[in-house]
Amino acid sequence: MADAKPILKLSNISKSFSGVGVLKGVSLALSPGEVHCLLGENGAGKSTLIKIISGAYRPDSGMILYQDKEVVHMTPRWARENGINTIYQEIDLVPHLNAAENILLGQEPLKKSGSIDWKEAHRLAMKIFDDMGGSVDMGVPVGMLKIAQQQMVAIAKALSMNSKVLILDEPTSVFTSKEVDLLFRIIKDLKAQGMAILYISHHLEEIFQIGDRITVLRDGCLIKTGAIGEFDKVSLVKAMVGREIDFTQRVEPAAKGEVVLSVKNLTRDGVVENVSFELHKGEVLGIGGLVGAGRTEAVRLLIGADPVDSGEILVKGKAVQIKSPLKALKLGIGMVPESRKENGLVGVRSMAENAGYSYVEVTARKGLVNWKSVKEKVYGLIKKLEVRPQNPALKVSNLSGGNQQKIVLGKWLAADCDILILDEPTRGVDVGARTEIYALMQELKDNGKAILMVSSDMTELLTQSDRILVMSKGRLVSEMTGKDATEEKVLSHALQLGGGVQ
Ligand SMILES: Nc1ncnc2c1ncn2[C@@H]1O[C@H](COP(=O)(O)OP(=O)(O)OP(=O)(O)O)[C@@H](O)[C@H]1O
Ligand SMILES: [Mg+2]
Predict the structure, then answer these.
(1) Strand pairing class (221-227; 333-336)
(2) Ligand 2 centroid, distance to 42 Cα (angstroms)
(3) Whose CB has fewer CB within 10 Å in the chain, the N or C terminal residue?
(4) Cα–Cα distance, 237 to 245 (Å, whole number)
């Protein structure tokens, strides 16, 4: 169906922000019944392009044709009413409303009296979820749901609106493999029904699994459009990044240094059970498992983000009570959280301010801050992490998704912690920048830091870890050296008990 007549055509679209060209003459055609993948590095202009399609941004020049007619003033409302629906990178649901209320917001079924028929709304929302083959807790505000669930609600909302074009901006970056399978099934159904789908992802395996056509952007320019068969992984990465990258190279296992963190029978009732392990100086200890296995919950206990019910934490041999992230930081433990939106950044502040926050916390003496050293440190990191654009004064909310993730990472790297916990460190980060982050992790390791890394990216887990722990159902179920680990081994352990503590 990829050869069907396009429903949407963009020609020569350009867009600048404050004089900086972000899209430069980009053209793209999207046909019913195809999954068209839009790829490119962080900051390449992917999200900007889809915001133009959805009417959130107005292009400076170029033409949008929808169903053969030129749309001169695309607005979000026009797009929605005419069947173009977008699931944004940063989910935009109303957090205090429940799933049904969000899905049917603005299109609520009415009773004869004219008031909203909530019972019917609930039934309709449940039906959409049933059709999708998923489920969600309708009884709580969506703000309390896990991000993956929120994403599913956003997709259900788009499906409720009779879409002809569905745009998904990195929908799976928060998904488990099971959720990805569900989403792909939904996408295949929609495709069979003739929906045109524009799909953005940094996971290349996904692209080859569901894509029909690929368009690659680099620095706002169109590099190549072609059928999926015209690309392989190597040529695709080269089109995106401009160079070849080897993904299979495993790190040289490090010699074990002294134990810097020791965890004994750590328990948070119902979530994490009797977790014990040791983390050594100069190693990357990976934690694998399925989402819901309790990995994030376990590492949150180590920084005092949640209370511990029983068990012991020893930092460099000394038993400690960690009641808050600030206390953890003072003990030299920093954590790069999983969700940058909730736990990471202050959007209205500059990237330098955000990145410098933890460094200021650890280096301020009696309330006095050495701003010169803060600046040096932070500017150095922004350069090293290749944050784009290289403008430390820029508001974080104006950065692309992947570049925001780099700032979260920078914030904790600046704090110079001896023990660094990274929860999904490269989520949303492009393939090129990923290799930079890995190199940085190796450098930290060589400088005697210890890294605990939760990762759902199997390649990342296998290539970057010296040792791997596998969690399932809130418990540690296996330990292996990075050298001996294989995808099959990690998965078979991760799956042995299923998800969630009983
Ligand atoms: N509102 C804005 N004001 C200023 N600059 C912006 C704004 N929105 C985006 N940009 C800039 O435009 C460029 C492209 O951003 P965009 O979000 O489209 O990238 P992307 O390809 O989606 O990247 P990612 O993979 O990281 O999500 C970036 O350099 C970004 O900083
Ligand atoms: Mg983006």
Answers:
(1) unpaired
(2) 7
(3) C
(4) 7
Atom of ligand 1 nearest to the CA of 57: 1
| pLDDT of the residue at 498 | 39
Q: Is the pLDDT of residue 371 over 80?
A: no
Burial bucket for residue 24 (CB in 10 Å: 0-12, 13-18, 19+): middle
Residue 369 clears pLDDT 90, i.e. is over it: no
46 C-alpha vs ligand 1 centroid, how far in Å? 8
The model carries a pTM of 0.77
CA 43 to ligand 1 centroid distance, Å: 5
pLDDT of residue 226: 96
- pLDDT over threshold 60, residue 392: yes
Q: Which ligand is nearest to the CA of 404?
A: 1
Range with the poorest average pLDDT among 180-189, 243-252, 369-378, 441-450 = 243-252
* DSSP state string for 399-446: S-HHHHHHHHHHHHHHTT-SEEEEESTTTT--HHHHHHHHHHHHHHHH
Q: Which residues make beta-bridge pairs with 313?
A: 263, 320
Atom of ligand 1 at shortest range from CA of 43: 19
Q: Are 147 and 67 in contact (CB under 8 A)?
A: no
Ion ligand 2 — residues with CB < 5 Å: 47, 89, 400-401
Grade residue 137 by pLDDT with cuts at 50, 70 and 90.
Answer: confident
pLDDT at 499: 39
* Nearest-angstrom CA–CA distance, 489 and 493: 6
Q: Is the pLDDT of residue 198 over 80?
A: yes
Burial class (CB in 10 A: 0-12, 13-18, 19+), 110: exposed
CB 99 within 8 A of CB 105: no
Residues with CB under 6 A from ligand 1: 17, 22, 40, 42-48, 89, 388-389, 398-403, 430
Ligand nearest to the CA of 401: 1
- Looking at the predicted structure, is the pLDDT value of residue 224 above 70? yes
Ligand 2 mean position to 167 CA, how many Å? 12
Q: Which protein residue's CA is at the shortest distance from atom 22 of ligand 1?
A: 47
Q: Which domains does the chain have, with CATH numbers?
A: 8-241 (3.40.50.300), 248-332+418-424+448-502 (3.40.50.300), 339-416 (no CATH)
Take atom 10 of ligand 1 and give the residue whose Cα is closest.
Answer: 398
Report how far ligand 1's centroid is from the alpha carbon of 36 (Å).
Answer: 20
Indicate which ligand has the atom closest to the C-alpha of 16.
Answer: 1
Strands laid side by side in the 165-169 sheet: 84-87, 165-169, 196-200, 35-39, 213-218, 221-227
